[in-house]
Specification:
The chain has 3 helices and 6 strands. With 117 residues, it is α+β, with helices and mostly antiparallel strands. It has a 4-stranded antiparallel beta sheet with strand order 1-6-3-4, with no helix packed on it. Strands 2-5 form a two-stranded antiparallel sheet. Helix 1 packs antiparallel against helix 2. Residues 31-82 form the Glycosyl hydrolases family 39 N-terminal catalytic domain.
Length: 117
């Protein structure tokens, strides 16, 4: 899905969306790609560079890197057959999201919770 919050005037508001999806699996992966004025804003970065009229190779590379959406993924477990998905969209932001069922097949001997301790 896609969620966005457009505005003609600045208000500083955020949009909090909550979806309840029917779920028949044990676990789901939620992937988001976010573009907003904080996470993917090459215009703001260019301004922070002093608004150069002619960009160096390094500056061009940096601006291209800043133009990539922020990507996040997390695991969610449904409760009572319902997967609750909360999406927060900042002003002038767009969030792409997808939900996929997950069947864990970890590598033998690898324990992610143990590794991140």
């Amino acid at each position: 899905g896609i969620a966005w919050l457009e505005s003609l005037e600045r208000s500083g508001k955020e949009l909090e969306l909550c979806f309840e999806l029917p779920a028949d699996r044990e676990s789901y992966s939620v992937l988001t790609r976010t573009v907003d004025e904080e996470t993917c804003n090459p215009l703001s970065l260019w301004h922070g560079m002093g608004e150069p009229a002619s960009l160096s190779g390094s500056q061009k590379k940096t601006l291209r890197e800043a133009a990539v959406p922020a990507v996040n993924a997390g695991l969610r477990k449904p409760e009572d057959g319902i997967l609750r998905l909360e999406i927060c969209v900042k002003e002038h932001g767009v969030v792409y999201f997808e939900v996929s069922p997950v069947k864990f097949r970890p590598d033998r001997g690898y324990d992610y919770p143990r590794v991140i301790r």
